[in-house]
Amino acid sequence: MFETPLHTLPFSLKKVAEHPEEYLADICFRFYNADIWAHKGILLSRCPPTFIQLFLPCIYNNNDDNNDDGCIINVDSVLLSSSLFKILAQYWYTADLVFPSLPTHLVKQLDSLENELGTRLLPRSDSSNGDNAATTLQNEAHVQLVEDIKRMRREQLGCDINISLPTDDNTTPIIIPAHRFILASQSTYFYAMFCTDFCESQTRVVHLTDHFFTPTVMQVILHYLYSDSVTIPPPPQLDLVYNNIDISSPLPPTLTKLQKLTMKKHSLRVLQKTFAAADYLGQMKTLGMAVLHSMDQTCDGFKCLCHDCVRLLPSMLSFADNKKDDPRLSRLRASLVTLYSDPVHAVEHLWSQKPFALLVHSMIPSAASMMKTLDTSATQDNWHKPTSSLIHEISDATYANVTKHNAIHVLHSLHICFSKLRSADLIPTWSLPILDLLDPILHSTVTMVSQNFDFYCVEYPILVSCVDGIGCGFSIDFLDFLLKHVLDQGIQDANAGTIYQGIVRDLIGRQETVKNVALDDVLLHARTQCTAYLTRRWLSVKSLGGFRSLEKATMRQLSVDIGIPYRTLTKPFDSDLLSLFSFKPKSSKHALKLKSENDPPYLASPSPNIGSGISFTRRRSFGTQRSSNTTDMITNRPPMTTTRPRSHSAGAEPYTPTYRPAKSDLSSGYMNNNTINALSTQPLIHLLSMETESRRYKQEMENRVSSSDAYESTELSTEESLIDALLPMEKIVPIVSDNTKAYRKSQSGEGGSGGRSTKLKFAIPSGGPTHAKSPLHPSLYSQLLSSSPSDPSADLLSSSPPPSTSLVSKKKKKNRRMMKKHGLSRKKSKWGLGSSSGSDYSEDDEDIAIAATTTLHSTMITPMIGAKVELRRRPLPTFGTIQYVGPVSFAKGTWIGLELESRLGKNNGCVSGVTYFRTDPQRGLFVKQDDFIIISIPSIPT
Hints:
The chain is of the alpha+beta class. The protein contains 37 helices and 18 strands. The longest helix has 27 residues, at 517-543.
């Protein structure tokens, strides 16, 4: 989005070379016919040492010269004339090769001077090699110029100004040496300060007191002024580990994925402050554009939805919104709004992140504030007034982007977003603002799907593909999510018949329902729920013409399901009105009298005329016939049958829909605490509670102090607190390996004649655990640690000791056998072309892997029945409850039986004819004790 800015350093140095006195030159070379001014820093960094010893021996003794007229050096040597010195000074400042255009007498004088010094003063190219050699030599000369300028700053050669930055304690300021001619030539702000009548032109110290001029930001600014490139210094904790890393040197290659993300957060923090400093210094066209280009590279062009970018983009969204009046950032803001408004991809990846939820909360503090914005007569204070319209723009654009053709994909994205939010925020706290935004989008999408249900079954048969599992990536859990919301929120009298026909004719009749019991169960429950609605509302549906588009076969099946004669359903509605005034009794009138809109959907009528409304006759597709007891449904008890009929069955077998308690929905429990709809029942209590919660959250954000020393400031403003919340810094502790030690030795200059470094060492455990242990969630671990000694749950906590050295050796041998089995090797390819990602393996990687595994399993707990767990190594968050712990018949060892909340299991608690526990089809799963993390345990009576 932001192109690389033009390099201004060569142009600035050319101005300095042409007007040295204007740019505060401090050394004057006095020849017999002319005076030539130059800068001490350029001479010390660019001149050969032999040249300085012969002609400029006095500049080593004038580093602290305070004379405003500078140092005057008389040059009376026959080897160096004023014309030749001008040519040499021009090369030292600009690195432009002018040797081919030199006069003959100057060429002879240059050769004599080089022979006297024994070194080359000007690089020369062989004319026989053509223009390519000259271009290469010119590029090398410019690269060397930049390196010399950077060395001039790094070694503080000829510095004549000190930049003073305040500290937190306001005692000893931080002093950074610099060169006035570089600052003045690269910045109009410093040019006006040093080269005009400002008071700073007479002093040696410049005070920058604004809050964004931190030492790190000043290092970035100076590095850009001296090299035309933006480079972010590492955070202090990493700098201490690796012993003062150079700002321009690459980082060590031993950072993990989380640490690399932390480095990107650190970079964005510094870049945002640097952008504010560039605006203050009037360098928006140079430094400002370079900072924006660096932000663009850090965030992958603001188009990526990778693991790192989804956590970095909320801070850039806040940054662009705060400076939306800047024309340079208006395009960035529009691009980010477009990216966040994509309902198919943004909701799933971007809206499920905690930084975005905190950003929404900062701009729209609470649902109470949204209620106040709807009431224009109410007095609005500054806290409840939204600070920006950005969230409303994103929400409105997302709502507008939901179309008829992407509605199913939007629901799938919402389903995954709810799952991620539930995984990251078990008890909704920070995710409430996001759930408030998702609620209207979910409702409108469900309404759109419900009104066009036949379109998704016939014209655009994506629901049929969802049932068949053909290339859509949808799961049975998503189909259950979709049908449940359609039948709970979207079904109406006008579309109930269409929904019934789509479920019965297009979905249940697929061959996949015969193979998959869990899919069959989902469709059976949807059919039952739709039938119950039509049983109660069939007369209203008929009056609205809801049965006109249904086929005859569907109408006959509906007649059997709801217990209403086929002729009654199909004859014109006017004849039903006439029958009200006739004297001939109708069985349907008796049925209508017993039907009521307030009847529960699963209650059966005791009337013999409509008894088949719930219990209709069907034939099982797999042979055997069983009868069910209608009384069980009347009393809301599960039926006594051991098996259930299939959804694709039809025929003569009596059928009773089984009562099934509603499973926890991914979005349930979220929409009833902080939404506008929740305020209708008890508005004052809700408003008071949410105001209190919002003010408490605001107070926590204001009192939050950053954990990194690099971001300590005198006063933390609201904007800085928001940056700390959007870009939280993690502690960087690199893994100590041989590469890290070699890097430290290379940085410190120590020799490496010693032997190989010591491997990881582990203490011998006192004794292994007597029972199977499972990893513990960190939040639950903290709760158990804080529990009282009398709490029985605290006794369950155990910290398993690390493996012994012999155990590590056994793991290494096992890893080597597995590598040999799969054809992997530690050796490189004999062709010298490297190897695949799986074949590059070393003993250090073994040690690191074993150490990481040991750390992960260091906190263990005995699994117990009733504990809530989260499965590991799954693409989506998967939760379950432990229902069985013990031996099994199909494998050795201790296995744990889980009842999953989603239909991602393999059984119903029964394996090979042995029942270990009971659950719904495809909700049972047996795993080992290290395949999950315990997130909560049941309360234990004392």
